[in-house]
């Protein structure tokens, strides 16, 4: 099967590309290289395009390569930037999805697999969030990802495509240093850098209503997430899944302090820390109920927090 993978030069996208290829599929990457790196996808065909340029180059690439499925990861993903530039986020994340769907309909694509996010749930107060939990995004990033979910659902129904949206929880870890997360916005890359440089990590709030006072998240290894894409792509191809929204997490809550302990345990380096004010919009706890995807396609995370931290540390390059 031949997949068009948007955002394939990104941190998560490159892991998905590698996993699809390892499973025997062909992959054509579409990426504007605004944050992606070509070294991550050296051997794959690349169409360098911003989705908001419109459907024509996308449809041409789909037809030229005989694409029958789309895996759509290209998006803007900074919560803080989305608050500053909401129009840009809607243009990129909703407008880009619209262009992709228009191209997919033109080219006769049969399947759409979408990269969504736990940010669609917003400040959930539930112990475990499942796919029936209310969606109430607390920023334009989450809104735009949810709007794109709806758009995919409606367009797929209108054009007879099967579809699945995977709601990622906190993705971390790496297969190797080439694919590693080079961003500086998520907790684990920040903590590893701080451990390496013996600088303090800022903990955003120590008075949350959690057992140790710090926020709890559900960290999932990027290679487990990539495996979830491969399994879901195969289920769309065979028709065993026609449509649906699925959480992708481990179902296990890990606090910020527990993550710092894991980094100390795995790297042997103590992590200095300083508790600062809460970050606006942070929920105290966001942990997946991952049972729907297990029931639908048998996917479960295989790697734990020490695997996540160990892989990210192995892939870490000092000075990056
Ligand atoms: N966090 C923190 N210090 C940092 C970065 C993150 O305390 O320098 C906390 C943040 O408040 C959240 C958790 O770590 O509770 C994960 O944050 P991240 O930005 O990685 O992901 P999010 O859950 O916000 O999508």
Structure description:
This protein is 40% helix and 18% strand. It has helices spanning 11-22, 55-65, 79-84, 86-107, 140-159, 187-197, 222-238, 256-267, 291-297, 305-315, and strands spanning 2-6, 26-31, 46-48, 69-72, 111-117, 162-168, 170-172, 201-204, 216-217, 219-221, 245-248, 254-255, 273-276, 285-286. The protein has a seven-stranded parallel beta sheet with strand order 3-2-1-4-5-6-11, sandwiched between helices. It starts with a strand and ends in a 5-residue tail after the last helix. It binds uridine-5'-diphosphate. The site of uridine-5'-diphosphate has 13 residues, from helix 6 and strand 8.
Features:
Rossmann fold, single chain, alpha/beta, 3-stranded mixed beta sheet, 10 helices, globular, 320 residues
Strand content: 15-25%
- N-to-C span: 36 Å
Q: What's the tally of helices?
A: 10
SSE string, helices as H and strands as E = EHEEHEHHEHEEHEEEHEEHEEHH
- What is the makeup of the main sheet? 7 strands, parallel
| DSSP, total strands | 14
The portion of residues assigned to helices is: 40-55%
> What is the CATH superfamily classification of the largest domain?
NAD(P)-binding Rossmann-like Domain
Strand order of the largest sheet: 3-2-1-4-5-6-11
Number of domains: 2
CATH fold description of the largest domain: Rossmann fold
Give the overall average pLDDT: 96
From the alpha-carbon coordinates, what is the Rg to the nearest angstrom? 19 Å
CATH class of the largest domain: Alpha Beta
Please name the CATH architecture of the largest domain.
3-Layer(aba) Sandwich
Low-confidence spans: none
Basic shape = globular
The secondary-structure class comes to alpha/beta
Small ligands present = uridine-5'-diphosphate
């Amino acid at each position: 099967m031949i997949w068009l993978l948007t955002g394939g030069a990104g941190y998560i996208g490159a892991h998905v590309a590698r996993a699809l290829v390892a499973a025997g599929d062909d992959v054509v990457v579409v990426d504007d290289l605004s944050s992606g790196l070509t070294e991550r996808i050296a051997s794959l065909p690349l169409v360098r395009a911003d989705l908001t340029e419109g459907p024509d180059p996308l449809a041409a690439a789909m037809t030229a390569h005989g694409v029958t499925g789309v895996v759509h990861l290209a998006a803007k993903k900074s919560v803080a930037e989305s608050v500053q530039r909401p129009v840009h986020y809607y243009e990129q994340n909703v407008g880009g999805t619209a262009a992709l769907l228009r191209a997919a309909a033109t080219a006769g694509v049969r399947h759409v697999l979408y990269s969504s996010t736990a940010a669609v749930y917003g400040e959930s107060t539930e112990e475990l969030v499942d796919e029936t939990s209310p969606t109430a995004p607390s920023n334009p990033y989450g809104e735009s990802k949810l709007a794109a979910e709806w758009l995919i659902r409606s367009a797929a129904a209108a054009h007879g495509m099967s579809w699945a949206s995977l709601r990622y929880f906190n993705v971390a870890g790496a297969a190797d240093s080439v694919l590693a997360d080079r961003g500086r916005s998520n907790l684990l890359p920040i903590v590893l850098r701080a451990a390496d440089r013996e600088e303090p990590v800022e903990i955003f709030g120590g008075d949350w209503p959690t057992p140790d006072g710090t926020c709890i998240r559900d960290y999932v290894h990027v290679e487990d997430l990539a495996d979830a894409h491969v399994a879901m792509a195969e289920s769309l191809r065979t028709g065993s899944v026609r449509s649906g929204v699925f959480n992708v997490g481990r179902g296990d809550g890990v606090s910020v302090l527990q993550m710092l302990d894991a980094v100390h345990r795995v790297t042997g380096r103590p992590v200095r820390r300083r508790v600062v004010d809460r970050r606006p919009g942070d929920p105290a706890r966001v942990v997946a109920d991952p049972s729907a995807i297990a029931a639908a396609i048998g996917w479960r995370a295989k790697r734990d927090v020490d695997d996540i931290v160990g892989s990210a540390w192995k892939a870490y390059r000092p000075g990056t």
